[in-house]
Each structure stands twice: as C-alpha cells, then as structure tokens.
Design brief:
The complex is a heterodimer.
Chain A lengths: L2 H15 L2 H13 L4 H21 L5 H22 L8 E5 L8 H12 L3 E4 L6 H11 L3 E5 L6 H13 L4 E4 L8 H5 L4 E3 L5 H4 L15 H24 L7 H18 L3 H16 L6 H12 L4 H10 L6
Parallel strand pairs in A: 1-2, 1-3, 3-4, 4-5
Helix pairs in contact in A: 1-2, 1-3, 1-4, 2-4, 3-4, 4-5, 6-7, 10-11, 10-13, 11-12, 11-14
Chain B lengths: L1 H20 L5 H12 L6 E7 L5 E6 L4 E6 L4 H9 L3 E4 L6 H5 L6 H8 L3 E11 L2 E11 L6 H35 L13 E8 L10 E8 L2 E9 L3 H21 L3 H14 L6 E11 L2 E9 L5 E3 L5 E2 L19 E5 L4 E5 L1 H4 L2 E2 L2 E2 L1 H10 L6 H16 L7 E8 L2
Antiparallel strand pairs in B: 1-2, 1-6, 2-3, 4-5, 5-6, 7-18, 8-9, 9-10, 10-11, 11-14, 12-13, 12-15, 15-18, 16-17
Classes of the chains: A alpha/beta, B alpha+beta.
C-alpha cells in the first residue's frame, strides 16, 4: 500500500477532530519521506476533502463541521506551500483568486502551491474577491497570466467579470474548478483563454499561454439580459419558491438558491448540463435527508411557475431538469 | 482601389490599437500589448526601447510569438539621436552587405540585432515614443524584402507610436504614484501576525473601499512570547484619512504597552494622547493582554467604546465578557476597568469591529445574535476558519450592499 493511502485514515481523523497540528505533522512526515507535494495534495488532502463533502451531502455533518475540517486541510496545504516557497522563482508571475461568492479557497490554494512548486511567482488573492480588486492587482503586478477557480455555479457570473477584467488588460486567463464541469464548453463560453481540466494537468497549461489576448467577446445579449434580471430578482425569487415548495428541511433554501444560480450559470454558458447536474444534486441531498414524496420534480414545477417572466430559464428547466429524479 | 483597401485596414488597425491600449496602467503589460499589436502591421519584428534615467534603456523585442527582454547601459547612435530630438530614422539595408552593421545604430543589443538580421531586413524604422513633449523611448520596426516603408507607412507607424507613447506615459506615472502610495501605506497595512507558543491567531480585513487594503479599522499584536498585547480598533471616519489616524493610534498603543502592558493603562494613555491633541477625533479599541497560565491562556481585557470580544468555549458555549469603557480621545483623564478570564486549550476569542454586527443587508443588521449563533457551531475550529466563517456570513448577509470596514482577529489557546 502506498504511504499516502496508509495515512489517509489518520488524516481524516485529524479533519474530524479539527486538529490542524496533527494534520500538519502527517503532511510534513509524508513530504520528509519523499512523497511528492502533488501526491500529498491530491491523494491525501483532496481525497479527504471529497469524503467530507459527501458527509455533508449525506446529512452526517453540519456546514460548520465541514468548514472546520476544511480549515484543517488549508493548514495542511499551507505547510506544503511553506516548503514550496523556499524554491527559487524561475518562471513568470501569476495572479490567482476566486471571484465573488466563491468562498472555497482551498482548490485555488492547492493550484497556487503546485504552481509555486513549479517555479511561478504566485500572488494569491483568496476567496470571494471583487473584480475591481482583481483589476487593481493586475495593474500593480502586471502578471503573465490570471487564474480563476470556481467550484460553485453561483460564482459563474462573477467569474465572467474576472475574465473580462483580465482579458480587457490583455492578460490570458485560465479558468478551472468543479463549476466548469468535465470539458471546456463553459470556460470557452465565458471567454477564458484556457480551461484547466483537473489536477495535476492544471499546472502545465500555464506554460503555453499566449503573451497577449484580445478582450473576451461580449456574451449573447438575450441570455445575458435574462441572467442579469435573475440576479436582481434573486432574493425575491428564492422567497417566492420557498413559500410554495413544501419541503421542510434545513437545506431547502440552499436547494432553491442553487437551482436559481444554476439557471444564471446555464444562461451565461449556454450549457444545459448544469441544470441536469443540479437536479441530481438536489435529489441526492433530499433523499439522504429522507424527504418524502417527489420533492425534486415539485421544485422544477414551482420554479417554472415563479419564473414565468423568464422564458429562457423556463426553457432550460423544461429541456434539462432531470425528470428521473424523484 | 488598392489604396482604399489599405486605408480601410489602417483605420481598423488604429481602432484596435486604441481599444486594446485604453486604460492600460501597467508598464510591462502595456509594452507587451503594444508589441503584440505591432506585428505584422507595423513590422515583422519590433523592438520597444524605454529610455532609463542613467542613459541606458530597457529593451523588449517581439517576433510575433515570443517576447525577449534586455537592458543596455548606453544607447546606439541612432537611438541617441531619437532621444535628443524625437526624429524618425529610416534605414535601408543593402542586400549585399552584412545587415548587422546597419542595424547596430538602431538596435543596441547584440542578440536582438542577430534576431532582426536573421529576417534579412530591407528596411529598419526607428520612431520616437513622445508623449507630452518628452521622448521616453523608441519603437524599432523591421520589414523584409519587397515590403519597405513608404511615406504613408511611416506616418502610420508614427501615429501608432504616439498612441503607445501616451499610454506608456500614463502607465509609468501610475506605477510611480503606486510605488509612493504603497511605501507610505506600508506602516498602515494590517500587520503579519507573529507565531507564538501555546496560541494560534488569524485575522481578516475587508476594507469598505474595494480597491483599498487600508481603512479606519485596525488590529495589532505585539509583546514578548509570554506577555502579548492584542488590540483591535476603529477610528472615526473612512478611507485614507481614517487610515492615517489608525497609524497614529497603533503607534501610541504600541509605545504605551512597552511601559505597561495592562490594558487599562494602555487605553488611558491612548485617551490622554488623543485628547491632548485637541482634535475632535476619537477611537474605539478593545485591548487584551495574553499570558500563559497553568492550563491555557490568561486574558486581561479592557475596552474603550468597543464591543467586547466573544469567547467561544471548546464545548460550543459563547460568552460575552461584561466589560464597558468610554471611547478614547473625547474626555480628559479617563480610567478604564479590566476583567480577567481564562482560555482553556481549545477555547477561542474573537475580537471584531462594528463592521460585523452593524453590517446592514435587506434583512436589517447582522447583529450580535446571528454572530453568537454562528460561532456556537465553530467550537474548536482553527482561528482561520472562525474568521473566514464570520467574513463569509457577513458578506452574504450584506448581499452586495455597501459596508463599513470589517476587521476580525481570532485567537485560540493551545497549539
């Protein structure tokens, strides 16, 4: 058995205990024994994170527990980053961050650490950064590339702002993260210079970027107008759907928000698979919490009612909401 | 007809140049964008020289795919002429001679000269980058056989160069000002937290002004490893003016704490200093003194018009120490009360500013109840996670609404 696999249960225990000291000791032990930083981040930290995500999805862990455990993983990545920072900078500069509403800084931290390990100078802006602030960093740093990480669909619209800010300054931008799915369709639709599939391939993409890129072309006018209208009405729409949808569990509002953000993301990217994915996500979440009846189907019906002034969004629901989900 | 097409292309080219250079405020990126646009319209190979104050130049060359950079300590003859009078230089390269000889007058770097010569150039054009009456650099462009520069071509390159020059000048000015501002701001920025045995700390700062890293809130940590002062505060006002006052308050607190770390004494000293200045400025501060205890960390706490920190016990209980005190800087001769408490290993203390509890979204203020309820779920979390959770929840509560500066400082007892 590989050393990373052997230590995985101990690492998971450290996450469950909120014990950053133990997690850092484990990671430093692996690095000292010659395990590559990449393997530690992917096979130990990444795998443990995937499992705690499932624990929340299954209703075993609260958001605060998941958050506390993620804090321990971040301390572990920081321990790897400390070692990476000792290496000399041999490549150019990259500004890396998450757009507004994206609070999952961990994937970006992992990418930043791998890039630093490869010799890039990395400026990490952290979670939920306004586009205005990114622009001021781009002016001050003048990097060779921007990298934006997006895990949640709710952050796709603000990620587009990141892409506009970067390409508007002629700087190539690499987009990656779970919200982009399994191919480059969404990244390309949003105007990114390149799509980062998954770790560890992400880091080599930066080697072959163009020096200067043209501004990202404008998004199609009609879907954009409807997405903006959805954004403005977001809170009102969430309230309206929650009032009608008879599901009584702590995560009901999250499901409604997720569905509405998904529609915004699907309008901007033209990718209906987002809608199907969210239907399955909602269904898995509610099944794990033993919500009776056909709540996922009912949610689509309520959304369709409440969204009557949003024809493109309703079309997306009709064509892509997974009808096989109860 | 042929001429018309060329004019049309040139108009389109200049339009692209204007659009892509517009608003560019970083010198390095402006140079790259300008060179990228120049191939092939301006030349097959281009070089941008930025004259440096000492008489040398920074050179960036572009062959359509790769940028290379070099610096030279002195200028070649034709470049020196361009610098002095801003005159365009056009050089026809004889086919039967070594092109390197002629290029040497315009291209001062040997490797770049070799790259240009490799294209067997017919013409080499040198144009001044002049903005607001000052020539800050030059653009050198090279074209191959059969495509030499005629009069309209030269005018196009000059027009292109003048736009590049103005953008570069703005970017250079912006960088100079940014450097000055950053240097002056350095002492006002939130400090890097020290690593202390038996304690873990984390902090967050979110300025009201999205483009700034500083504002009217501040935090600080100083002292020795077994006697540490931790402060968080909020001065009246916003933006740069407020940030300057935070610098003064931080310095006063730091100096006072060197003589006596008792929070009540530190706050009284701060009050005296600000009051004596007679300005109508005030500061709210929470000040904690941390010392290692037999089991955990001993805390002495005093506040001046500031919300008391919250204590998050390992078991999820959230406590608010009973402590009040008057804002500093308004009344003479104040004295402050202190409370003592113990943080057992795993207990945490969160210091915050009113940007948190008074964050106002569509559902009213964020408030202390939400804050306490949130913290109860984060018992035992790392200080980084505590800060992150509060910041995220407050920003979500705001839902895009404007906010005051937000500062958070979390301390957890135990390694």
């Amino acid at each position: 058995m590989s050393p990373t696999l052997t230590l995985l249960p101990d690492f998971e225990q450290a996450l469950a205990d909120g014990d950053a000291g133990a997690a850092v000791t484990l990671v430093e032990h692996l690095l000292a024994n010659g395990t590559p930083a990449e393997a530690v981040m992917l096979d130990v930290i990444g795998e443990a994170q995937r499992r705690i995500g499932e624990r929340w999805q299954r209703g075993e862990w609260s958001v605060a527990q998941e958050h506390t455990a993620t804090g321990v993983s971040m301390a572990a990545v920081e321990a790897i980053a400390r070692q990476a920072r000792v290496r000399p900078v041999t490549r150019g500069r990259i500004v890396l961050g998450c757009a507004e509403r994206e609070w999952h800084a961990l994937p970006a931290m992992v990418v930043g650490t791998l890039l630093r390990d490869r010799g890039w100078h990395v400026t990490f802006l952290g979670a939920s950064t306004p586009a205005d602030r990114l622009s001021s960093y781009l002016r001050d740093v003048g990097p060779d590339a921007t990298a934006v990480s997006c895990s949640i669909v709710g952050a796709l619209p603000s990620t587009r702002q990141f892409i506009e800010a970067s390409t508007g300054a002629g700087i190539p931008v690499v987009a990656g993260g779970a919200a982009f799915g399994v191919d480059d369709v969404r990244a390309r639709a949003l105007g990114a210079t390149a799509w980062a599939p998954r770790l560890p391939e992400v880091v080599t993409i930066f080697d072959d970027l163009p020096t200067v890129v043209p501004p990202a072309p404008p998004l199609p006018a009609e879907p954009l107008a409807e997405q903006r209208a959805l954004e403005l009405a977001h809170r009102r729409l969430v309230d309206a759907v929650c009032e009608r949808w008879p599901v009584d569990c702590a995560e009901a509002r999250d499901c409604v928000e997720q569905a509405l953000w998904t529609l915004q993301g699907a309008l901007l990217t033209g990718d209906g698979r987002l809608v199907a994915d969210t239907a399955r996500w909602v269904s898995a979440l509610l099944t794990a919490r033993s919500v009776p009846g056909m709540p996922t189907t009912a949610l689509a019906a309520e959304l369709t009612m409440v969204l009557r002034d949003f024809p493109l969004a309703v079309d997306l629901l009709r064509s892509h909401w997974d009808a096989t989900c109860p | 007809m042929v001429i018309d097409m060329r004019v049309k292309d040139q108009v389109g080219f200049m339009h692209d140049v204007s659009r892509q250079l517009a608003g560019s405020l970083n010198v390095r990126r402006t140079v790259l964008t300008a060179l990228h646009l120049a191939v092939p319209e301006v030349g097959d190979w281009v070089l941008l020289a930025r004259f440096e104050p000492g008489g040398g130049a920074t050179l960036t060359a572009w062959d359509g795919t790769t940028a290379t950079t070099a610096t030279v300590a002195s200028l070649s003859v034709a470049l020196a002429r361009i610098r002095r009078v801003g005159q365009t230089e056009l050089l026809h390269v004889e086919l039967d001679t070594d092109p390197g000889d002629g290029l040497a007058s315009l291209i001062p770097d040997a490797a770049m000269r070799a790259a240009a010569a490799g294209l067997r150039p017919a013409d080499v054009l040198g144009v001044a980058l002049t903005a607001h009456g000052t020539t800050g650099g030059a653009l050198i462009a090279v074209r191959g056989q059969g495509r030499g520069y005629d009069e309209p071509d030269v005018r196009l390159v000059e027009e292109y160069a003048s736009r590049v020059a103005v953008t570069l000048d703005s970017a250079r000015l912006y960088e100079e000002r940014t450097h000055i501002a950053n240097t002056l701001q350095a002492s006002l920025r939130p400090p890097v937290l020290p690593e202390l045995p038996g304690l873990r700390m984390a902090a967050r700062y979110r300025a009201a002004h999205e483009r700034m890293e500083i504002g009217g809130d501040f935090y600080d940590v100083h002292g020795t490893k077994d006697d540490v002062s931790v402060v968080i505060g909020d001065v009246c006002g916003k933006g740069v003016e407020a940030a300057v006052l935070t610098g003064q308050a931080r310095q006063t607190i730091k100096t006072a704490a060197r003589f006596d770390r008792s929070p009540a004494v530190v706050l009284a000293a701060l009050n005296d200093v600000l009051y004596a200045e007679g300005a109508d400025r005030f500061v709210t501060v929470a000040c904690a003194r941390l010392r290692p205890a037999e089991r955990g960390t001993h805390v002495t706490l005093a506040v001046a018009g500031h919300p008391a920190p919250l204590i998050v016990r390992r078991d999820g209980t959230v406590e608010e120490p009973e402590i009040r005190g008057t804002v500093a800087g308004v009344w003479a001769d104040l004295s402050y009360r202190e409370v003592e408490l113990l943080l057992a290993p795993g207990d945490a203390m969160l210091l915050f500013t009113d940007g948190v509890n008074e964050a106002r979204g569509q559902n009213g203020f964020f408030g202390m109840t939400r804050l306490r309820d949130l913290l109860a779920g984060y018992a035992g979390a790392s200080p980084e996670t505590l800060c992150e959770a509060v910041e995220q929840r407050v920003v979500e509560h705001l839902d895009g609404a404007a906010h005051d500066d937000i500062a958070l400082l979390a301390i957890r007892s135990g390694d």
